[in-house]
Write a structure and sequence with these properties.
This protein has 233 residues and is mostly helical. It has a single domain (2-217), classed as Rhomboid-like fold. It is built from 10 helices and 3 strands, in the order E-H-H-H-H-H-H-H-E-E-H-H-H. Helix 1 runs antiparallel to helix 5, helix 7 (134-147) packs across helix 8 (170-189) and helix 7 (134-147) crosses helix 9. The protein is globular. Residues 223-227 and 229-233 have low confidence and may be disordered.
């Protein structure tokens, strides 16, 4: 399923969501201009390599301790970055609107780090670099499910060999998405291979988003929602 847009208006412009999209896009453009050897070096230095991080906990490799954060802004392909940023622009604006920019940024970073932790617990000896904003964006999806489970999401749904546009409740869309991550994660444990995707990072980020949405929502807004203006998207 591919989300096209949601039908939930916002109170204000999602400036921080746009800034995160722009930052990820700029970093990816930088990756594109690098020579293959330089790009490989960048990914191995600033991507999250679980074994390298674990071995660096004794302080022997300070740069490795920064990679849980830096890895969130690197991507491996056009499809990777476009998919991630598309989900962020569909769901991020309303989460930013509800939490406020400071809490939204905290949610984004914290769920991204939770995603990294989940993947490292699942495969602590991996020597493969993990990159991408998927974990943080999974956290945004978790928060969206808590905040707006009944919002309508216009979705491209594959039926047989064709895609059909349908309006789905956000709760249905996000839970189907989560089920797909769960199935793939258990497939990895069963030896089916992960296809180069950090499925446990998606699960960890999503679950962290569920929890943090409750913790970070301003109390006064939870009690009395402010009137919303039409979305600018």
């Amino acid at each position: 399923m591919i989300p096209v847009r949601d039908l939930l208006p916002t109170r204000r412009r999602p400036v921080l969501t746009w800034a995160l999209i722009a930052l990820n896009a700029v970093v990816f453009v930088y990756e594109l201009v690098l020579e293959p050897d330089a790009l490989e070096q960048l990914v191995h230095l600033w991507g999250l390599v679980p074994l390298r991080f674990v071995e660096a906990l004794d302080g022997s490799d300070p740069q490795a301790l920064l990679t849980p954060l830096s890895s969130m802004f690197l991507h491996g392909s056009w499809l990777h970055v476009i998919g991630n940023l598309w989900f962020l622009q569909v769901f991020g604006d309303n989460v930013e609107d509800d939490l406020g920019r400071g809490r939204y940024l905290l949610l984004y970073v914290a769920t991204g780090l939770a995603a990294v932790a989940a993947q490292m617990v699942a495969d602590p000896t991996s020597k493969l670099p993990m990159v991408g904003a998927s974990g943080a964006i999974s956290g945004v999806l978790g928060a969206y499910l808590v905040l707006h489970p009944r919002a309508r999401v216009v979705t491209l749904v594959p039926i047989v060999i064709f895609f059909h546009l349908m309006e789905l409740p956000a709760g249905v869309f996000v839970l189907v998405w989560f089920a797909m991550q769960l199935v793939n994660a258990f497939g990895v444990l069963g030896g089916a291979g992960g296809g180069g995707v950090a499925w446990f990072a998606h699960l960890g980020g999503f679950l962290a988003g569920l929890v943090l949405a409750y913790a970070l929502l301003p109390r006064q807004r939870a009690k009395k929602p402010a009137p919303r203006r039409a979305s600018s998207r």
